[in-house]
Amino acid sequence: MANESPDTRPHRRIRPTRRGRLLLVVAAVLALGAAAAAVLVPLLSKEPKPAEQARSLVIPEGWRASQVYAAADKVLGEPAGTTETAVATADLSLPAEAKGNPEGYLFPATYPVTSGTTPKSLLRYMVSTARTRFGADHITAGAQRNNVTVYQTVTIASVVQAEADTEPDMGKVARVIHNRLDRSMPLQMDSTLNYALNRSTLDTTTGDTKIDSPYNSYEHKGLPPTPIGNPGEEAMVAAINPTPGPWLYFVTVAPGDTRFTDDYAEQQRNVAEFNRNRRSEGTG
Asked: Using CA atoms, how far apart are residues 19 and 22, in angstroms rounded to an integer?
């Protein structure tokens, strides 16, 4: 009989002892636990963070700087007065004519707010937006055509924004302003008095027209020293392209009914109708 080669001989099966079986089971459990932990840790470490809740600050057209400051403090969760105080050190790129006052340059828009937004960064964003919009070629050309600076155009637009209710009326109000400036007449705009008195009202008294303020356009000729609010695009367009017309006066006698004229007697009749309507509203 031929000899068997070593690789064809039957092999002896090795059976582990009871203790050995126990050690293998423990080792297997530990190995599985380690593998599970190795999988779990990366999963935990890669879990996405909760998305930051979207916030925004909406600045309507015509808002005054004081209203913008208060709204910014609220959305940022800052104590009242924080944003206004930040103006002094925010390094805003304002025109020299503004003398550090951002009124008129807190551009009306919707601004995103994140956890990293600060009063200073928000102010810089608003002013940068305004400088970009107001620095456009058509604005500059329009200001030159009207013999005023861009800053004065923003001031005119702020008065237009405060006085007019509709886009067509904006062009006419702008024309009244330019016509009065050309004739060296005081503007006599109630909106400038309201700004000086920090109020919003349709009722102006004779005493109001006598207040000691550079914003009293009844007593002082020319434009107020700064804008009286933050105008939007439509008001700026009206300021550089006023509707042609001879008007020197206007009054809104009823909602949707603003009357323009260059005749003082007609203006007086319109004002009398306005006053009658106001009295009727008061007794209704």
From this structure: 5
Q: Give 17 or 142, the one with higher predicted confidence.
A: 142
How confident is the model at residue 203, as a pLDDT?
85
Strands 110-113 and 249-254: unpaired
CB 69 within 8 A of CB 84: yes
Q: Are 229 and 195 in contact (CB under 8 A)?
A: yes
E-state strands within 173-284: 249-254, 257-261
The secondary element (H helix, E strand) that includes residue 38 is helix 18-45
User: In which element (H, E) is residue 242 found?
Assistant: none
Place of tokens 């969760």: 77
- What tens digit of pLDDT does each residue of 34-49 get? 444 444 444 444 555 5
Q: By the 8 A CB rule, do 262 and 182 touch?
A: no
User: What does the domain layout of the chain look like in residue ranges?
Assistant: 55-134, 148-283
Instruction: Answer yes or no: pTM beyond 0.85.
Output: no
Comparing 201 with 58, the larger pLDDT belongs to 58
Spatial separation of the C-alpha atoms in residues 195 and 162, rounded to whole Å: 10
